[in-house]
Amino acid sequence: MKRQLEYIDQMFDNIIENRIKANSNKIDRVVEEDGSKDFLRILLELKDQKDTPDVIVAANDTTSTMVEWVMAEILNNPVVMRKVQDELTEVFSINNIVEESYLHKLTYLDAVIKETFRLHPLLPLLIQKSPDESCKVGGYTIPKDTTVHINVWAIHHDPDNWTNPLEFKPKKFLNGKWDYNGNNMKFFPFGTGRGICPGIPLGDKMLTCMLASFLHSFEWNFPKDEEFDVNDKFGFVTKKKKSLVAIPSQRLSDKTLYMG
To answer: With contact defined as beta carbons under 8 Å apart, do 247 and 221 qualify?
Structure first.
């Protein structure tokens, strides 16, 4: 893993160095016809500005952490696992591997992922906010430059927002339109407004693809005498206190797996 991390870092370094060189030669073609800029260009411009505050805080293990939480909840709920696998069989058939172009049809798996984000938001206090000017929110005065933390974990577990909030019930996300855009104040695991996570589209697709592949290709079970543990370890990213251990067994044919 350390070798792979060095390889990835080198890739990023090459991309950044090439962009800096292109900018200095005024041949940067990343600006679109409508004047928009890509994410890297914006970051480089901010870097060159004086007195620029920190604009990004990120973790590189959020997707893998969420895969573990979703798999743990599914393993603890055999009925949910069967419904997910039935949907995967219907969409892909038992003779095909998971394909990205059909992920949007996995409505039940999407509901399972959203319910897991509700129960186990990765960033329970989100990214802290700090107003440029004093303002009033909900009748409270927030002085300028105050550090504000939003307890999204409490919002996601509030009985005024959710019936039986401690229970894992994916069906609640099958009714109505739920997304990660931060417009619904009952459910916004990635934040809201200008501070919302910029990696939502990529992270959502990666998470769905990984889980679909795991659950379509294999059956999963807890080891003998292994008990389900949902305790978490509080931090900037909330992880399981005890790492998940699961045993896979082949679900697809050898030929299908080989072709994949």
So the answer is: yes
